[in-house]
Amino acid sequence: QVCTQVPYRCYSTPGVGQVQVDMNSETGVATVRLNRPPVNSLNLDVLTELGIALEKLDADRTCRAMVLASAVPGIFSAGLDILEMYQSTPERCVAFWRALQDAWLGLYGSRLVTMAAIEGHSPAGGCLLAMSCDYRVMADGKFQIGLNETRLGIVAPFWFEDVMLNTIGHRETEKALQLGAMYSAQQALSIGLVDKVVPLAEVMPTVQGELKNWLQIPDAARVITKTSMRKQVLDRLRSQKEKDAQFFADFIGRDSVQRSLGAYIASLQKRKS
Ligand SMILES: CCCC/C=C/CC(=O)SCCNC(=O)CCNC(=O)[C@H](O)C(C)(C)COP(=O)(O)OP(=O)(O)OC[C@H]1O[C@@H](n2cnc3c(N)ncnc32)[C@H](O)[C@@H]1OP(=O)(O)O
Question: Where is it found, in Gene Ontology cellular component terms (predicted)?
Fold first, then answer.
């Protein structure tokens, strides 16, 4: 049972929040679990909750590390909620995009050691969240990870691209983004998209073991290094947040993009029948 006794502290009501945060004040490690069945798609509410959770953890001086995981078996996150982008209003699109920008700035710019425990599928926005952590452990088997935007007839924003470039380099990013490639865990490991692949049951223990290494490093030196490595990419979005949000709303509102999204939603539903 999570969050019922000392040393755990919760920032959300267990089993209720769509973003559950368990803070272990003895180890200084927080576990943040996405909890929006069936697939943890990221809508305005979840992104807002995630942004707030990250902000609180960053401000908590007892917290040194954060594990990003899922409370939904078989899924890390299905990425952005497509229904936020399909037949929405420009105002809602802008609000949705701002929530995504803020959650991402909080995660990529976090002073904490951040690790993704990828225990399920992780397409698109799910892949972005995982890539934005300092370290990724993925479950071996049938799960896939990647930025598949082009397959939906949409384009990964420049900051998704920047994060991928920083993770796997130019050539692999160029192929991955144009093809909207989805990788198995082993393929992801071979291009450096994840750092370790282990059986599903070993994902969390492996993350905990790796954290021990990272937490041996003095925080101040590690944070200065992380900030220096990520500043350029963070500043690029910070300097054009409103322009980026407006671009998203305009792009998503195009008839051709709406038609592609409609067809993609239909294909997801057809897969089941
Ligand atoms: C400038 C524009 C830039 C915009 C950037 C966008 C980035 C993004 O994140 S776009 C989102 C891309 N995501 C995907 O393509 C994922 C699509 N989903 C899947 O491939 C599969 O659902 C899965 C592999 C993640 C899981 O498969 P599983 O068999 O377990 O579940 P399903 O039966 O397919 O799905 C259950 C249910 O959930 C709906 N759904 C799935 N993904 C999404 C989503 N991203 N948003 C909203 N809804 C989603 C799916 O349609 C099913 O709904 P119904 O039960 O009502 O049929």
Answer: mitochondrial matrix; mitochondrion
